[in-house]
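User: Can you help me understand a structure? I only have the sequence.
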Amino acid sequence: MAHPRLITDPIWLLRVAAVVAILLAWQSVFWSGLLYRGVVPSLWAIGGALIGLLMSGQFYGNLAVTAYEVGGALLIGGGLGLLAGIGLGASRFASRGFEPYVHYLAPTPKIVFLPVLLVAFGTGPHSKLALGAVSAFFPMALTMAAGVRGIDPVLLRVGRSLRLRRVQMLRLIYLPALVRPVAVGLRLAFGLAMVGALLAEISLSNAGLGYIAAQDYGHFQTAEMYAVLIMIFALAAAGNAVIGRVVRTAGPAR
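Assistant: Let's start by predicting it. Here is the structure, written out as tokens:
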């Protein structure tokens, strides 16, 4: 049961109204017959397909594959991006030497690396994990580099005056001051890691949520395809919420 204060919150009401409007618009298009009903199935058909998906053992196996790929990609790509971003932001020499390459490669569609990754890691989940890691690296590195440059110089001077070592500077000054950039970078990295892994699954795979969505599309099972997409959206939202909670918990005490 919703909290009474939540029910009267205008932001919450606006969000609920937006969802209701989208659902009504979808169902209205289905009733109107303007589009082929196989393209826009009814909400009842999608709901039935969603229930069937959740009751299917196949779904959870594919979910585990995608979770492994995205989680591993975020851990590897995001972790390397965090370290690289701190290095680029803290060292003017490293920034002038390497950051232009990061900026040039960041907007490149990462799917172009898939053939190379398939040769290196095969057609299994590791090539999808690698593509997700490449996708996650760049937003994390650029966000962290900008965050490091935004640290109050007074804090850095205090650390140098106390003759802190590099590891101590990182632990006591850089990381506490970078909670917000870390949160932003992780959210961007998570989103792009998920996109990279799913694109790789759609392009060439035999497992994962992207794979079963592509299979449903290939057999023109649109209600089932939309059910998979809804689960992907829900998992993306849940992952984003978990990242936000972890970052707030790990942040400096107020």
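Now, to help you interpret it: The mean pLDDT is 81. The chain is about 80% helix and 0% strand. Let me know which part you'd like to focus on.
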